[in-house]
Amino acid sequence: MTEKKMNVESFNLDHTKVKAPYVRLADIKQGQNGDKIHKYDLRICQPNKEHMEMPALHSLEHLMAELSRNHTDKVVDISPMGCQTGFYIAMINHDNYDDVLSIIEQTLNDVLEATEVPACNEMQCGWAASHSLEGAQELARNLLAKRGEWTEVFA
């Protein structure tokens, strides 16, 4: 591992020391007018050992992006990690970690109840053919089964 500090927070994280699944506060950015963006790392798969398949990841992204906003108006964005091991959740002016965990839990429970993937069509999605509701629900089910481990980031 390099000793040079990188500009991207997650590039400074030793991915060999974490234990998925977990939720951690990865960064806080302050805006000019005092607003704060809290970036949470929702790690679903163990880095360099497993990853989410793209159709399931894609559908979970759509479902979480849509359904999380039923529980809070603080979500700015939910973005998949390029390594396909988790998501970044950006929230504005919301640093209550326990509440963030609750919002994620409620959202994943909503995913289990979903009967379709929102915006899963060519007009609203850039790769509408790459979706799996069943895959997204399996990811949600597995993540919820390990709810008690979400606060344990390092092995």
TrEMBL record:
Catalyses which reaction(s): S-(5-deoxy-D-ribos-5-yl)-L-homocysteine = (S)-4,5-dihydroxypentane-2,3-dione + L-homocysteine
Broad EC category: lyase
Name used for this protein in its record: S-ribosylhomocysteine lyase
Chain positions recorded as Fe cation binding sites: 58, 62, 125
Pfam families assigned: LuxS (PF02664)
Family: Belongs to the LuxS family.
Cofactor note: Binds 1 Fe cation per subunit.
Function: Involved in the synthesis of autoinducer 2 (AI-2) which is secreted by bacteria and is used to communicate both the cell density and the metabolic potential of the environment. The regulation of gene expression in response to changes in cell density is called quorum sensing. Catalyzes the transformation of S-ribosylhomocysteine (RHC) to homocysteine (HC) and 4,5-dihydroxy-2,3-pentadione (DPD).
Gene Ontology MF annotations: iron ion binding; S-ribosylhomocysteine lyase activity
Cofactor: Fe cation
Enzyme Commission designation: 4.4.1.21
